[in-house]
Write a structure and sequence with these properties.
mainly alpha
């Protein structure tokens, strides 16, 4: 509540005077401009906290991996350091592409949908903020599940997505290890999704913040008590769940597509768990995809599929 009062006070101050050249225009507190100012303040706030949450989550999980790793490969400091730097560099490039090419388009699309009353949540709950927010986050997460499953089902998308699955030492840095081609495709698809769902810009940023925090958690090479993982995965995706998804065994790779909420895998009948997660081997069953240099990862979509590693094992 304190945050909202602070944002509203800032918006009201801005409402009183809008400077345009040398002229001062008076703006009503409940005008469209006032609403836009408050929404922009909210978006800016969540974007700042998204960056902070990402850095804090990465730091804490790196420390956790160092002292309580699930697999021993995190104890090899030299190879681990190179692995982390490579993955983080790839993630940084992807973030730069999204920031420069797509964030503004997402926000403009969300603002258009809100101003025109277009989209599912605007039709169902335009005047109920909490219901709108919860509904938008659920719809975005359902879409993320669907998009992930599409990346495993269609050969063209899988060529890009296998860059993520080729990592034989999955850890927290793997959370951002994606081919830039996949990032561009997913970002383009998100534009009509935002409009069709009627998602507000701040809801998108909030979802991204929560979702990526959970994504970092379930990629991390950390030891989590079995009972705690079991309890958590009734709601969110956990390390035990996602280890199965990164298995070299294709039938296991094609499972557990959820990113934030685990319910989508249960509804989509793609939920799978193993009683021996310590026996899982990460990566892809194709020596041609073993290259770990950035150049190898960038050209991976151009390489042919191994017969056992195509989408859905075909």
């Amino acid at each position: 509540m304190a945050l909202w009062h602070k944002l509203r006070a800032s918006a009201l101050r801005s409402d009183q005077e809008t400077i345009c050249g040398s002229e001062t225009l008076s703006v009503a507190a409940d005008s469209p401009i006032s609403t836009q100012i408050r929404m922009q303040a909210l978006v800016n706030f969540f974007q700042e906290w998204q960056a902070i949450a990402t850095v804090i989550g990465l730091t804490l999980l790196l420390v956790w991996e160092s002292f309580r790793p699930f697999f021993a490969f995190s104890r090899d400091r030299s190879s681990r350091g190179i692995h982390i730097i490579r993955n983080l560099l790839l993630g940084a490039v992807n973030s730069l592409v999204v920031t420069l090419a797509f964030v503004a388009l997402w926000i403009l699309t969300a603002e258009w949908a809100a101003n025109s009353g277009f989209g599912l949540m605007n039709w169902l709950a335009s005047d109920r903020a909490v219901i709108h927010g919860v509904g938008a986050i659920l719809l975005l997460d359902a879409w993320t599940y669907t998009w992930h499953r599409m990346n495993h089902r269609f050969a063209f998308l899988w060529r890009f997505h296998r860059v993520h699955h080729a990592d034989k030492q999955m850890d927290v840095s793997t959370a951002g290890r994606f081919h830039v081609g996949e990032i561009i495709l997913s970002s383009l698809f998100r534009i009509p999704v935002i409009a069709l769902f009627g998602v507000y810009a701040w809801e998108l940023v909030l979802y991204e913040t929560i979702m990526f925090t959970v994504v970092q958690f379930h990629h991390a090479n950390i030891s989590v008590p079995a009972w705690l993982d079991r309890a958590l995965r009734t709601v969110i995706v956990t390390p035990y769940m996602h280890k199965v998804h990164h298995s070299r065994v294709r039938v296991e790779t094609d499972s557990n597509y959820s990113s934030l909420l685990s319910v989508w895998d249960r509804l989509g009948r793609s939920f799978r768990i193993r009683s021996d997660p310590d026996a899982i081997e990460f990566g892809l069953d194709d020596p041609a995809l073993d290259g770990e240099r950035l150049a190898d990862l960038m050209k991976m979509p151009l390489l042919p599929d191994h017969p056992k590693q195509g989408p859905d094992g075909v």
